Each structure stands twice: as C-alpha cells, then as structure tokens.
Amino acid sequence: MDDRPFRVIVVGGGVAGLTAAHALHKAKIDYIVLERCNEPAPPTGASIAIYPHGARILHQIGCLQAAKEACSPMTRFINRMPDGRPIVDSKFFDYVLENHGQDVLVLERRCLLKVLYEALADRCSRVRLGAKVTDIFDGTDGVEARLADGTSEKGDIIIGCDGVHSLIRETMWDEGNTSIPGLITPDKVFFFVFFRLGDPFTWPNRKRFTNQDADIAAAKVLDHPISETVVFGELWQKRIRGSLICLEEGILKHWHFGRIVLAGDSAHKITPNIALGGNSSMESIVVLCNHLHRTLALHGGRPSKATIHNMFSAYQKEREPRMKEIMDFSSLLTKLQAWDNVWLRFLATWVIPYQPDRRIADQLGDSIIRKAPKLCFVDVGPEFKRGKMTWADEEERDLDQQTAKEASMGKKGAGGEAASLMSKLLLLVGAMAGLMSFLFLVVAVRWDS
User: Fold this and answer.
1) Is the Cα dihedral 412, 424, 385, 394 positive or negative?
2) Would you give the end-to-end CA distance of the chain in angstroms?
3) Between 251 and 244, where is the model more confident?
4) For residues 206 and 255, is the Cβ–Cβ distance under 8 A?
5) Which of 161, 265, 311, 382 is deepest in the core (most CB within 10 A)?
6) What letter would DSSP give residue 231?
C-alpha cells in the first residue's frame, strides 16, 4: 500500500456530486469529481426546489446566499380543477418560512449547479469536465476509474452520483453478482404535466419518447387553464425546451459493494410532485460524509476494505428508513394529483381543500423538514435564521444539555417522563380531533348532496 492520503472519487457533477465536493472539502478529505459533460451547468433539466433542510446544508457549505440571489421566493400554492376552477389557494410557502425561518427556493437546476460549482475551492483541479467513466476496477488496496480518453483516476472509494441511469450502479451490480451470484436483482416558468402510465415497468426496461410523442401528449391538455388568463397551450408554444420522460420510483436494496457506494438518484428515486428529490440527494451525501469523517478520525490513514464496508453499511442503514418515509409521502401526493382511484380523487377534491390552510406545511415541517440531517463537522451558526419549529438535532442537543445539567444538580427524570406522557396524550387527542373533523366533513358532504 502506497503512502498517499485517503482519496474519494465522485462520479457525476450534478447536485449530489457537487454537494459531495463541498462536504469533502470541509472535511479536509482529498477528492476528485468526474463529470462527463463538457460544462459544469449544462442546459438540461427544469427547476429544482430547495426546502429549509436543503437550505441548511447550502448554508453549511457556503452556497445559500448565492442560491437565494438566483431565484424568487414562492408565494402561493394553487390547485385547480381541469376547468381552471381553484380548489386550493394556500399560503403554504409563508407557513414554511414561519415554521423554519427559510423560504422554499425554486430556481433553474443549471443555476443551482452554477452556484455550487463556482463556490467550490480549486474547482478547476478538483472537477474534471468531459471525463466520461467507462469502467471501474475495484481492488484490495484501492479503486480505479477508467475514462473514455484513456486516462484514469485512483482512489480509495467511489461515490456514484451519476443519477437514476447510473453506470456506477450497473458496474457495482455486475461486480456484486460476479463475487456473490444472485446478490442483487419569474422570467421563466417551469411546468410539469403528469400522465398516468397504462402499465408500470421495471428495470432494466426503459421507455424512451420522441419530440413527436411529447407534442401528442401536450395536445391532450392544451386547453387546460393554469391561471385565470393562461392555458397550458400558450406555455407549450413558447417553451424553450420540453420533453416527455418516464418517472422512476424506488429504493434499492443494495447501495454499496466493495469500495463503491451510491448516493442520490442512483440509490433512491422519488417522484417530483413535492420536489424533495434534490434535497434527498443532498441529505444522503451529508450522511455519507458524516460517516466517512468519523471513520477517518477513528481509524486514520486509509481504512481497510472491511472498515469501509462497515461504514457504507451504517450509511445505508441510517438513510433507508427516512428515504422510505419521503418516498411514501411523495408517492401519495403523486397519486392524489393524478386521481389514481375514486377514493384518492375524493380526498383531493373534497377533503384536502377543506383542511386548515397551514396543515400540510406543518405536517411536512414536523415529519420531514425538521428531522433532516446536516454536516456534523460544520457549525450551522446563529446567523442561519430559525423559525417556530426547532430542528430535531438542535432539540436533542438542548435536551442532552438540560439532562446533564439536571443530573449534576441531583434531579430525577420523572418530569421528563411526565412530559413524554403528556405529549403522547396530546398527540392522541389531536388524532381524535382530526378524525372527528374528517367524519364531520363526510357527513356534511352527504347532507349537502
């Protein structure tokens, strides 16, 4: 084994890959990013939304202010029927700001990539553009990424951030099955129109659509109002670019093998309706880098392959339950908006519009946003604005400090047990109240009919 420092090869220079670059730089870990495109922010993709938990990560890596300057905050959340009649007109984004102290930032994906790239120290030497990976060699003492131009990059681990159609994932699967047979089986408007597939499909099948297919699909909804004065056809005629793609959804069972690990869409893909995909990719990079930082601090130098395996396993074990929760939430919203069945159509048109205006923002904030991870080795600082809801990790830190203080004063923990019991009782009462309001709504609907 040579005496070079531990080195990470990041394949893919998208949101996950560039977030990884910043996190590794903060952790003082040597790295290289390999991006197959010849420019850091290619004109592909549409918009991306950054929720407060994503904003906290951008703040930690020094990119939040630039991201804010590249977009305009959202103001209203409006849901319309096919005839243009609004059934939901919510101050959702105001409530998110109130709860967490941060706006939901919506900007063009390439603008976010530009922000991430330009804020990266030594970007010219750390990010290789036009570097298409063609093969991976996973050895006992290291890993090597071989490129289309005949060159290669050597390191200790590879992080696959190359998206839902990941070459690194396919290579990892091949190696896994070879070693263990059977192991794996404002000035712009961004719009999304969702069509339900007749029959779902699974990997390795992948449907591809032409521009003509996109025109045919768009023709079905040209007269659908998207506001009081504009129909979809007007947007489609003035589009800068548009395409018809299939939306994949799922969480892999195997995120790593040997010295290769996956992050972002290459490991977990969710539907875009609630716009949590980019945030989830950033989260996975943060959790992976936290584990890497702790492992290197504990073992030093270049950890063994067995240690790396344990680190990757711990990373996947931490991320899987949260990604399952986020995917289920996103999937439910997709089915609601698509009126996937009679029951969901009833919920979308008769139940949700009559819920308290801030309920969705509060539920999203409490169950997903406030529980998101952050870089453990970078201080957030008081300059990052907070809101009404406390971040779960900061709440846990404050509780630990309070417990330690009480222990030093000789106090017993009965008060904490009583508070826990009271919180559970309040949660039960809230659930019963929600059920009663729902039953009342159903009765009212039937009475009116």
Assistant:
1) positive
2) 78
3) 251
4) no
5) 161
6) B
What average pLDDT does range 322-341 have in this prediction? Answer: 90
Closest CA to 414 of 425, 424, 403: 403
Distance from C-alpha of 11 to C-alpha of 31, rounded to nearest angstrom: 11
Cβ atoms of 20 and 263 within 8 Å: the answer is yes
3-state secondary structure of 152: strand
DSSP secondary structure letters along 133-148: EEEEEE-SS-EEEEET
Strands 30-35 and 127-129: parallel
pLDDT tens, 101-134?
Answer: 999 999 989 999 999 999 998 899 999 999 999 9
Residue type, 354: Y
pLDDT band at residue 431 using 50, 70 and 90 as cut-offs: very low
- Taking alpha carbons only, the member of 113, 112, 93 closest to residue 52 is 93
Q: What is the pLDDT of residues 39-61, one digit of tens each?
A: 999 877 778 999 999 999 999 99
H or E stretch including 229?
Answer: none
- Give the number of other CB atoms < 10 A from CB of residue 438: 14
Please give the model's pTM, rounded to 2 decimal places.
0.80
- DSSP label of 391: P
pLDDT at residue 278 in the model: 93
The CA distance from 9 to 60, in Å, is 22
Between β-strands 7-11 and 157-160, what pairing exists: parallel, antiparallel or unpaired? parallel
Q: Lowest mean pLDDT: which of 25-39, 260-274, 431-445? A: 431-445
- Its sign, for the CA torsion 378, 384, 390, 391, is negative
Which residues have C-beta within 8 Å of that of residue 226, sequence separation ≥ 6? 80, 84, 191, 232, 235
Sheet holding 133-138, edge to edge: 133-138, 143-147, 152-155
Strand pairing category for 152-155 and 143-147: antiparallel
Q: Is 337 exposed, middle or buried (0-12, 13-18, 19+ CB in 10 A)?
A: middle
DSSP codes of every residue in 192-226: ------SS---TT------HHHHHHHHHTTTT-BS
Query: Do 107 and 67 meet the contact criterion of CB atoms below 8 Å apart?
Result: yes
